[in-house]
Amino acid sequence: MVLNLISNPPPWPGDARCAVAFTFDMDAESLLHLYHREAAPGLIGTSATLRYGPRIAVPRLVEIARHTGIKLTGYVPGWCVETYPDAIAGLVEGGHEIGHHGWLHEKPNTLSREDEERVLLRGIEAIEAATGTRPRGYRAPSYAMSEHTLDLLVEHGFSYDSSLVGDDVPYLVSGARGRLVELPSDYALDDWPQYVHMKEFGCTMPIRSPERALEVFRAEFDAAWTHGGLWVSIFHPFVSGRLARAEALLGLIAYMQEKGGVWFATMAEIAEHIEGLVETGQWHPREERLPFWREPVAPLVTPRES
Ligand SMILES: [Zn+2]
Predict the structure, then answer these.
(1) Where residue 296 falls among pLDDT bands split at 50, 70, 90?
(2) 18 alpha carbon – ligand 1 mean position (Å)
């Protein structure tokens, strides 16, 4: 008998063993313009690497999703929504979800509350203009949620957040203005540590083969399947949409579909399911209040400089 390692998994639709959401953060060149503002126009090689995302990888991922019958969730900075309308149109036509991911990939915890709200509103405007609907979900660029993010998301009508990695199943995060569903993932399901080798962003690890990367992603899936968890990829089109990796992705989806008992959904669908369970009292998720700490912890002693 298997020892269940998740103490309170939610009931998934259709008695599925786990929920799976393929999510992609389409950052394109936002990172380049944010971190190398003056030099960016001259960094054509880096631009070409990043533009591979909206130009080549997104249409490829849309085709993979159509072929396998799954829906994707893309988190897209507002500037990228406006700069690459064809990629966004392809996602929208395919019935995929577009979530909020800042304006130019700014880290929220480096902004004032006013600036964070300005970024949030401008991103909503861009997504609404391109898709016809307001985004329901948000993922903080670089996992960098601020102490104001949750309150701003509640104030501006979001239904879920996917910036934190604090559990294996959905949970609730509450703040001064209300609460939201949190749909967590983990850095193990991010493709940057596996594949990205770009000195411009301080990532110069050896590149793993798709088979090695898939071992990590598949192990997370098998565990979610066994224990009733949630599997949320944090992939990037310019990374996982490259040819051999896209092939491996097809293999991963086939593996999941053959195993069976998987609920493939968009993040908005998962959030809606969880909200329904909470409202009807069918499931009681864990709830955490943000921010965790209001001020620094006073040290008992002062360590020497080493
Ligand atoms: Zn991003």
Answers:
(1) very high
(2) 25
Q: Give the distance (Å) from ligand 1 centre to CA of residue 26.
A: 7
Rounded to the nearest angstrom, the distance between the alpha carbon of 30 and the centre of ligand 1 is: 9
**What's the CA-to-centroid distance between 8 and ligand 1, angstroms?**
30
What is the DSSP track for 9-56?
Answer: PPPPGGG-SEEEEEEEE--TTHHHHHHSTTTGGG-HHHHHHHHHIIII
Q: How much distance in Å is there from the Cα of 169 to the middle of ligand 1? A: 22
* CA distances from residue 79 to 88, 233, 237, 290 in whole angstroms, order as listed: 12, 23, 16, 28
Topology (CATH) of 13-289: TIM Barrel (3.20.20)
Closest CA to 189 of 246, 244, 230, 145: 230
Alpha-carbon span 153 to 99, nearest angstrom: 12
Ligand 1 center–CA 27 separation, angstroms: 5
Q: What percent of the chain shows pLDDT beyond 70?
A: 100
Q: Give residue 306's pLDDT.
A: 75
